[in-house]
Amino acid sequence: MVQHPNPIALRAIREILSAAHDLAFEFDGQRVEVSAEREDGVWPRPLDGLDEGTDGPWPPEVRIKARWERGSAELRLRAFWWQTDDSVRHLVGLSVLPSVGKPEITWITFGKPVRDALAKGGAEAKVFADISFKLHPKVGETREEWEHRRDSLRWAAKAAGLDMPTPAETRLCTVLVHSGALHEPAKDVFERLVKVALVKLPILARHSTDVVIGAPMYDIDAELEEEDEFEIPSVGQKGKLQAIAPLPGGNQSYMKTLQEILEFVRDTSAELSEVNRLFIEHYDAKSNKTRTKYIRLIRSFGFLEEEGERLRLTPDGIAWLENPSGVKLFAIIDSVVLGMTELLQLTAELGPLSPARAFELFPERIGMSWEQSVQVDVRRNWLFSMGLTERIGGADRLTETGRAVLASCNTPQPEPNTARSTPINHNLRLTLTPAQVRPLLGDLLLPSTLVERCCAALTAGRHLLLVGPPGTGKTELATVLANVAELEGFCEGLLTATASADWTTFDTIGGYALQKDNTLQFRPGIYPRALKERRWLLIDELNRADVDKAFGELMTVLSGKQVTTTYLEGDQAVSIGPDAPGVYRQPEAFRLITTMNSWDRTSLFRLSAALQRRFAVIYVGPPNEADFEALIRRAASRGEGLPKPLVDAIVVLFGAQGLRPYRELGPAVALHMIDYIRCREDEPKGACGLAEAIELQLLSQLEGVPHRHSTNVTRAIHFALTQARCDASARAALTERLAELFPSDTLG
Fold first, then answer.
1. Calpha distance 647→635 (Å, rounded)
2. If one looks up domain 434-619 in CATH, what number appears?
3. How far apart are CA 693 and CA 712, in angstroms?
4. Burial track 191-224 (b if 16+ CB lie within 10 A, e otherwise)
């Protein structure tokens, strides 16, 4: 019997926290001083594999106060456990939080690497800490901004002296499995833990104003120095510039912004002060250093020249502005910047080319050793803005214009990606891994093992049925899985359809349709259409259709067999399946993903056991309460932020003291409510916005709540409105709607 990992992990954590001490270190030219105080730990509720009587005292909780030149912060370091009911349930780890509040700065699981080492008979368990964070498009963060902050985070980790064996992790310690002792001095491990927390603190400080007093230890939004290297020519490589700068306006608008700037110079007196004012007022470029960089970049293209305090267009600038094409601009940039043709060639060979894959391969191809991806990303964005590439799920592939440009460069053309321009190899076996999926999840909060289960099921040849409450991200997850499959060459994207009660086999398989010349011709339904277009298929709300009536012969196809229908296409019978001839052959890598809301299944069509056998049925639930709360607070803090009583009311409403025990709801419902409250023009932050948001966004999700719970649901809504200080007049319409929904209850 394999030993439980928790006692070993707990001993290691106890050794680290017991070694807490005052320390100081240098960070980017400033001194950081840290004081530490230990408090006795208190054993929690019973945990798997642990016994208070035999496993010693619970590790102490450590409170640290960190001070630097312009700011300070107080943090808590504690031993804790993974609370969700999955494969890492109750495994202990180290949690770092602000002195007040719940959002974790970092979480380091010790139990999992120890468990893995025990299972393999290893003597050591290596423990790593993430130097990463999620993309949050739902709170207004673009991928370009996220990538910039990601690179700043990596720079900060190295500036703090942390070892980075991978771009997203730092080595924390090594645990000796037989004893739970640390391979290195606990004092050193504690110092690494403190540095990890302080390096990641500015991420949390962007969304929570009370975690740092003064300014963070560094500005994660500041520009990296590497971006200024664009003016330095590369010796021995045709004198080209090693680096290229971006232009403002968004990653697909570099060329558009360039045109706007040149037109402004052409149409005005073009004094340098006026150009600077354009950058400030139109592009929000408040830094003089940034504005200077923009002007130097355009000068390096040969489009601008300076006369004292005045700018004017060069003949080349005038000529390009007369015909501002991406093809001409590429030729100009390629003549002065290193690697533009090489990146276009790499995209042609591997496209869709993901950011991570580009950073892995491109610098080596042009003989550079960049530690950050800034220069790769900026080049990718220039190609995108010039129309030479298109972006799919964050990855790039060549457009027809890009292929024509590459051909004109006398560069050998690679064969187009098999999955894009020729029929998919019938024998190509699908393999998806969590490591491929997680970078594209963005702000989607999912239970820890859900991605692993989806990838395993898809790789095992199963179609997916994603079941769960509304708003938990089922459709988003399906889209991400298909995007990854596309990036890896298994399909050409996702075809999406929403089931309805009037579906028949005409919608799913197809049938004869009358043409303009009054002849009948076979029109493929969504399933054969997906096969023909080499796409995966997503059917949302599957149980809204009478599946037995709508799927027909597809039941046989989903079991892995071929069917030949009664329809003719030309003079050939329409066949669908893995052995079918022609365009409706189902390749090995094809997958059907369906979704279903779990709480309305009783009021809609039930799925037969025969159909369910053809899917891997995976439950997609809401995030745990702590993650749900953190997501609400992040969304509510965007911009000027919503008032704290209002935010607290929303948190309680969707928590265990509110609606959660009676109706599981995903984060999307809460986020839609926050967006509505923010958009109330006459009272954007008022509590009446909450009453209206509940009426417009939430009540429809509460239909069908069992009568025995209606009073508790009504009370939860009433409590939230009271907590948000919503007056009676603002509640009037909501009171009427609640009375219709729950006739036996009233809202006070």
1. 10
2. 3.40.50.300
3. 19
4. bbbbbbbbbbbbbbbbbbeebbeeebbbebeebe
Query: Sign of dihedral through CA atoms 706, 708, 712, 717?
Result: positive
Q: Are strands 463-468 and 395-398 parallel, antiparallel or unpaired?
A: unpaired
For the cut 90, the answer to whether the pLDDT of residue 613 exceeds it is no
Based on its alpha-carbon atoms, the radius of gyration of the chain, rounded to whole angstroms, reads 29
**175 contacts: CB under 8 Å, gap ≥ 6:** 8, 9, 12, 110, 113, 114, 117, 124, 125, 126, 127, 181, 182, 183
The 10 Å Cβ neighbour count of residue 395 is 25
Angle at 223 between CA 218 and CA 224, to 5 degrees: 85
CA nearest 106: which of 168, 48, 54? 168
Span 164-222, pLDDT tens digits = 877 778 889 999 988 889 988 999 999 999 999 999 998 877 766 668 888 889 888 76
Q: For the chain, give every domain's residue range.
A: 5-214, 230-414, 434-619, 625-741
Percent of the residues in the chain that have a pLDDT greater than 90, as a whole number: 23
Burial call 354-393: b when 16+ CB within 10 Å, e when fewer: bbbbbbeebbeebebebebbbbbbbbbbbbbbbbbbbbbb
Measured distance CA(491)–CA(417) in Å, rounded: 11
Q: Is 582 left (phi over 0), alpha (psi -120 to 50) or beta?
A: left
What confidence tens digit (pLDDT) does each residue in 36-80 have? 999 988 888 778 888 888 888 999 999 999 998 888 999 999 998
Evaluate whether 66 touches 218 at the Cβ level (below 8 Å): no
Output the CA torsion sign for 67, 68, 72, 75.
Answer: negative
Question: How far is residue 328's CA from residue 331's CA, in Å, rounded to a whole number?
Answer: 5
Q: Is 389 helix (H, G, I), strand (E, B) or coil?
A: strand
* Residues near 58 by beta carbon (within 8 Å), at least 6 away in sequence: 14, 41, 42, 43, 44, 52, 79
Mean pLDDT along residues 557-574:
85
Query: At which residue do the structure tokens 């995903």 appear?
Result: 666
3-state secondary structure 247-287: CCCCCCCHHHHHHHHHHHHHHCCCEHHHHHHHHHHHHCCCC
- Beta-carbon contacts of 339 under 8 Å, excluding residues fewer than 6 positions away, are 362, 365, 366, 368, 379
Chain CA centroid to CA 515, Å: 45
pLDDT at position 604: 44
pLDDT reading at 137 higher than 80: no
Two tokens at 360?
A: 């892995």
Which residues fall within 8 angstroms of residue 395, CB to CB, at 6 or more apart? 351, 352, 353, 354, 355, 357, 487
At 277, list the tokens: 């004012």
Task: State the average pLDDT for the chain.
Answer: 82
